[in-house]
Amino acid sequence: MNVLVASGLTDFLHDAVEPQVQADAIGLGAVFALMAVGIGLVFGVLRLINFAYGQLIMAGGFALAYASERGWPVVAGIALCVAVVVVLSLAMERVVFRPLRGQSPASMLVATFAVAFLLQSIALIWFGPLGKNAASLVELNQPMSIGSVEVRKIAVVSLVTAAVALALLLLLLNRTSIGLHMRAAALDFPTARLVGVRANAVSAVAVVLAGLLAAIVAVLLTVQFPTVTPTFALNETIIVLAGVVVGGMNRLLPATLGGFAIGYVSGILGGALPTNQSQYLSTFLFLLVIVVLLLRPEGLFTRGGHAVERV
Amino acid sequence: MSADTALAVEGLLVSYGGVPAVRDVSFDVGAGEIVGLIGPNGAGKSTTLHAIVGLVRAQGGEVTLGGRSLRGRSPEAVARAGVALVPEGRRLFGELTVEENLRLGLAARRENGSVRDALGEVFALFPVLRDFRKRSAGALSGGQQQQLAIARALVAKPTVLLLDEPSLGLAPTIVDLVFSTLTEIRGRGLAILLVEQRAQRTVALADRTHVLANGELRLQLTPQDAGDTDKMIAAYLA
Fold it and tell me: CB–CB of A188 and B91 under 8 A?
């Protein structure tokens, strides 16, 4: 038995360091990091955990599938995806988030549960349980060579896209007045309003930025999982929420790192677990989440509780 | 109400859970005037300020700025209309730099103009802020933080400046600086409402000072009363 475990572990470690597995894990980490930023931005400004974030990505996935089934050019599909997700985000902000601003976190969380299942049910009625195919970008699953190693193009595309998106977001937060207003609102919303920061404007901008990130995630995820169903991105959202809490919910940077870390770990587990054990991926992943939370309940990537900027 | 009245409060009523905190409070502040509001803890001084800026909802009465009603407006709308509050405890963004805190003050500014000019004006009033502009606000001393809080309110070029106990916890020299700054900016036509615990200094500085006790205005004092011990004692016992 011990020999079996030992040899299983050796195989696992051997597979885990494969460049292809590493590249895929980093790519998945990058996608999860984008989702973590989307969730973290809205949490920072509105103090609201948006459980319905996955359904925004799902809606974007269906937009891509719609375009793909009609043979639209890739750019038009992405434009439709962005438009659908941003409009839906704004509607969510106006109808649910804004009226609930300042309410208890539990009320807001349950409200976003309701929105999530509402959107999922609408998707079920419109598109059926089997979903639609978003196949415009599947060729990105082809390998490419970097030096002597072969990795899938999507891993590189995901990493580069995430890096560019996060760099642009940082520029916006640190170099523009709306960015400054968002950071102030995340630190102390009542005082920000007192000095003249428009509450509705910062919350709408945070939600739209999170929506743009959701649209990007929809594009990247449909490459690897082209079949878009009503539960598309649901598991990923739950995993990212765990990652955000593990990283440190209160600040954007730890939350992002938490999202990346959990995406990376699930990528490694997915790539290196033997096929007959791959159904245990979530078991291992959440076991790890529990262990980390027991050891560092304040967050894996927070320093002294308040050293890193919240937005 | 005179022609140059900037801020007017008429019959203000604020209650918390049915218990009135401020009752039938009326006063006004003209352009170029300092009006003091003193009284013991719990008298309703901060509540009055919070009702003016829209942080709490008034159940009755009227607050007008240049004749236009402020009632029911959000805090950001009141700030953008030209009322700046220097809150109790300063409420700076400690993790942001001095300059970022000042740029936040610009959110409420109505007139356009260069950021550099706006910052230059407050740096002229408080030179220490220019030296520390890149430092995080939380790293400043208490006196420097109070200067930053006042500067953050002033960059918005408000018509009315409200200050909630600006001298609280400050060294005497800094208190002198704060009070002399108020005299200087009054000269520029700003209407100033000063809520303070330091009764004697406030009465001496302000054009008139109202004494608030149990949510009601009890007395009105003028600078001549600052030397009148009987009146000051009456104010304390109000």
Answer: yes
Q: In the structure encoding, which two tokens stand for residue B121, read together?
A: 């004006």
Q: Which of B75, B91, B107 sits opposite A181 (nearest CB)?
A: B107
Chosen for mutation from A180, A194, A202 (greatest number of chain B CBs closer than 10 Å) is A194
Cβ separation of B104 and A180 shorter than 8 Å? yes
CB B209 within 8 A of CB B38: yes
Q: Quick one: pLDDT at residue A306?
A: 46
| Of the candidates A67, A66, A57, A65, the residue with the CA atom closest to the CA atom of residue A119 | A57
Helix (H, G, I), strand (E, B) or coil at A267: helix
Residues of B in contact with A176 (CB under 8 A): none
pTM of the predicted structure, to 2 decimals: 0.89
Angle at B114 between CA B113 and CA B117, to 5 degrees: 105
Lookup: tokens for A147? 């030096």
Q: CA–CA distance from A113 to each of A52, A203, B32 (Å)?
A: 6, 19, 54
Rounded distance, CA B51 to CA B8, Å? 12
For residue range B159-210, list pLDDT tens digits in order.
Answer: 999 999 999 989 999 999 999 999 999 999 999 999 998 889 999 999 999 9
Cα Rg of chain A (Å, integer): 20
**Which residues of B are less than 8 Å from A188 in CB distance?**
91, 93
- The model's pLDDT over A148-205, given as tens digits with 9 standing for 90+, comes to 888 999 999 999 999 999 999 999 999 999 999 999 999 999 999 999 999 999 999 9
Residues B143-160 as b or e (16 or more Cβ within 10 Å = b): bbbbbbbbbbbbbbbbbb
**What residues have CB less than 8 Å from A298, skipping those under 6 apart?**
A248, A305
Q: pLDDT tens-digit profile of B145-160?
A: 999 999 999 999 999 9
The strand ranges marked E within chain B are 5-16, 19-30, 34-38, 60-65, 68-69, 83-86, 160-164, 191-196, 208-213, 216-221
Distance set, CA A25 to CA A16, A33, A37, A91, A139 (Å): 9, 12, 18, 34, 19
Q: Residue B114 carries which DSSP code?
A: -
What ipTM was estimated for this complex?
0.92
Closest approach of A188 to chain B, Cα-based (Å) = 8
Hey, are the CB atoms on A187 and B95 less than 8 Å from each other? yes
**Nearest residue in chain A measured CA to CA from B79:** A196
